[in-house]
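Dig into what follows:

_____
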Amino acid sequence: MSRHEQARDTRAPGTRIPAARAAAERAADDAGQDRAAADRAAAERERVAAFRTRIGAPALIDIHTHFMPERLLAKVWAYFDAAGPLVGRAWPITYRTDEQRRLDVLRSFGVRAFTSMLYPHKPGMARSLNDWAADFAARTPDCLHTATFYAEPCAPDDVRRALDQGARVFKCHLQVGGFDPRDPALEEVWGLLADAGVPVVTHCGSGPVPGAFTGPGPIGAVVERHPRLRLVVAHLGMPEYTEFLALAARHPEVMLDTTMAFTGFAEQAAPFPRDALPRLADLGERVLLGTDFPNIPYPYADALESLEERTGLGPAWLRAVCHDNAARVCGLD
């Protein structure tokens, strides 16, 4: 069939479209989707840049982002896709792309430093995760070298080894790990981290669902024994916001990160009490930006704008939270 005959093709419905035409239509659809995705990405970059301009921050520092081995990350995403018991509701992953593209996205937002939060869910995982994170930090200079640990006999050795490798921040997930931070196996770990002055971002709040050892009691007992521990309470301690704000007020080394707090997604289930905003303002030098990127069910810009709109605490507070505090804590000044 000639080109002109193909153009006049009036075959009956159901007749197979010529392969060349089908391929062209698929290519056109793909190109259209690529253009739409590029337009959305450009619009979001503009939103983040406008936010940074409003608060007077030349860049952002995100203390709570996730990079981990691809196979493990795929399992984490599958868990979110299935709305697992620690999630409890639909949780679409907004930035489900390959590692390099995720790095490009963060950098395009003006994020000058970020973390590779990873965490074991059973014994025997921490050391291999830490080795991966050390390699990731070596090939990703703007990543703050991140490490982790589990409540097991080898935990002190794992932490010493990670510190020797250059770890600058640790992640502890009491909900996923399901261990008690007061476990005797961790007593030396907390002492090592307190002596090193390394911040430990800890999911110790009971959101989205309570764990056996979440809440301010267990981790509060650790801080009482190790007052120099630079504990960073993830998610502002969601949903026990006021209790964790009180813990920070009592202990000058305790900090909080903003991960997911004030977003529409979080406010539906665990709204931040507005009468606690003055206390949050008073702790402004100990509040750090966190987002949970890429594992968030909304655009990155939403997290920033929600923090701005729902706190109403102004540009100076936001600039400290989104850049200056972490720069000081992590030695980036």
Q: What stands out?
A: The longest strand covers residues 111-115. Strands lie at 60-62, 111-115, 143-144, 146-148, 169-173, 200-203, 231-233, 255-257, 287-288. The CA atoms of residues 263 and 306 lie 5 Å apart. Confidence is low (pLDDT under 50) at residues 1-11.
